Amino acid sequence: MATKRTIKPSKNVPPAPAVCSPCDGSGMVAATVRVGRKRRPVGQQDGICLNCLGSGTDPDA
């Protein structure tokens, strides 16, 4: 009868990437929309996070 081989998990598992703080890992942030000569705010729209460039991971960590 053949012997069973057990596979051990690797100990070299990389750590999970850190989450970007301005966008909380979503890659999107709210940008204010301004209109008119007085540049009054009328609403918000989604924009790409300039810290992580949309990846959701912290580039400094």
Describe this structure in words.
By secondary structure, this protein is mainly β. It has strands at 28-35, 40-48. A two-stranded antiparallel ribbon has the order 1-2. The radius of gyration is 23 Å and the shape is rod-shaped. The mean pLDDT is 87.
Which SSEs are present, and which pair or pack?
Blueprint: E1 28-35, E2 40-48
Antiparallel strand pairs: 1-2
Measured distance between first and last alpha carbons: 51 Å
Q: How many distinct helices?
A: 0
Helix residue percentage: under 10%
Q: Quick one: biggest sheet?
A: 2 strands, antiparallel
Count of extended strands: 2
Shape: rod-shaped
Question: What Rg do the Cα atoms give?
Answer: 23 Å
Give me the side-by-side strand order of the main sheet. 1-2
